[in-house]
Amino acid sequence: MCTARGRYAVVGTGARAELHVDAIVRHAGQGGLVAFCDVNPTRMAVRDSRLDRPVPAYATADFLRMVEWERVDVVVVCAVDRHHGAYVVEALDKANSGGLLVHKATHHFDLLDWWTGAVPEVVYAQGRLFFYGEGNGERHGHRRLYLDAEHEDGCHRDRDPFAPGVSIEDHLAVLVRYPGGASLNHHLTACSPWEGYRLMVNGSRGRLEPEVVENSWVSGPRCTAGANPEEGHARLTVQPLFGRAVEVGVAAGGAGHGGADARMTAALYGPAGRPDPLGRRADHRAGALSLATGFAANRSLETGSAVRVAESWGRGWR
Question: What does the DSSP 8-state code read for residue 119?
């Protein structure tokens, strides 16, 4: 039975889908899983075998037919990043996509919008392809380490980011100005040896330094033995103006992006109307605004100039 939030279809049934499928099943009273869609029937069959009640499986060519026939209310896109835009376009009839400034940095931009309580005004960006790509793979020796070794054990490192045709920037610097005087200096490193972020907030009364490390080191592709478990920490340092720095205790969040996965899926698939005094539950507007920063940054990369966010989205975007 599908109630409350409605009928879910999951597109892409690899490892990325597991978090969402498990959450939908766990919160079955709020909605129901009604279909899978994937290019790979074997993966869909594996996912289906783990359900108490199997659901229909559709080929990607039948995506729109699935949406219509299964009366889908929510499409959960878990396919590889390059296909996200196409499914969103087909499901919602509106489009936008582009690079790590949208697929990765948008999470940081969302946090900044939430923390400042403001809509970004002006964005300027620079970036380059430094680590990945065919030429860099040859230079760093990673092509021989991964692509040229695939025939030995069948291990494919993220479909090989050192292959020909890889062109999106993996090192990016973004400047953002917010109304009221706040400004952001953001740097994204896509080949960092650890996962997480460091934030420095400078204000009139001192400085805050949160550090969130989701994985303290990365062992390599998941298909190798001995891949490290998620090991991380969170710290908060308060540096008063003209005072001694103090480290404030931060409770461990748990596994899955520091415990965020469980909270996110509870908000997405759990009962609606739960108290949210800090306003952490992002809505469609918050998502659009975080994307706005990434799209403006991409435009800045193309033009070499600062971009006014409102102008890049047109009239009435707020």
Answer: -
CA distance 7 to 4: 9
DSSP state of 60: G
Rg of the chain over CA atoms, in angstroms?
21
Lookup result for tokens 């499409």: 75
Share of the chain above pLDDT 90, in %: 32
Contact 112, 184 (CB under 8 A): yes
Which amino acid, one-letter code, is at 224?
A: T
Q: Please give the sequence-ordered ranges of beta strands (E in DSSP) within the chain, or none if there are none.
A: 6-11, 31-37, 57-58, 74-77, 122-128, 171-177, 183-189, 195-198, 201-203, 206-215, 233-240, 246-248, 307-308
Q: Is the dihedral of CA 116, 118, 124, 125 positive or negative?
A: positive
**Class of the CATH-defined domain 6-95:** alpha beta
The encoded tokens of residue 86 equal 């196409």
In CATH, what class is 100-129+168-313?
alpha beta
pTM of this prediction exceeds 0.90: no
- Dist. CA 36–CA 136, nearest whole Å: 37
